[in-house]
Specification:
Blueprint: H1 2-18, E1 24-31, H2 39-52, E2 59-64, E3 67-71, E4 77-80, E5 95-99, E6 103-110
Parallel strand pairs: 1-2
Antiparallel strand pairs: 1-6, 3-4, 3-5
Helix pairs in contact: 1-2
Length: 124
């Protein structure tokens, strides 16, 4: 299950960005149908790993995209929820994938965003 390693990598990126581990409430990811990632497995692994690593109990919001295809024979472009076998116009299997492989974090919401306002060394 590679979703566990993806969840761990996501939390590593969050920790590196925040410079520490702290409670987060929500992480939004964009996930394409051709990414090879199971949304259900990623959500489970992320939530459980976040709890174990001290990030609280954040919600993983998953925004899914559609797969964009282009027929290299007739030039037709179409969208699909998955890897459609052929061009709906001419039936050709010769296609270029335009989109649908996305997997990235779009946003992170912190539990207490004002908590660090008076911490650290600030220069005035």
């Amino acid at each position: 299950m590679h979703e566990l390693s993806l969840a761990e990598d996501m939390l590593g990126i969050i920790k590196s960005t925040l410079k520490k581990t702290r409670p987060i409430t929500r992480v939004t990811v964009v996930l394409g149908p051709l990414s090879g990632v199971s949304p259900e497995s990623l959500a489970f692994c992320f939530t459980e790993t976040a709890k174990l690593r001290g990030f609280g109990s954040p919600e993983l919001e998953i925004r899914t995209t559609r797969a964009g295809m282009k027929c290299t024979d007739c030039g037709n472009e179409w969208e699909s929820a998955d890897f459609t076998p052929g061009c709906p116009r001419c039936g050709s299997w010769n296609r270029e994938i335009l989109s649908g492989r996305e997997f990235y974090m779009e946003s992170i919401e912190l539990e207490d965003a004002d908590e660090d306002q008076n911490t650290g060394d600030a220069e005035e």
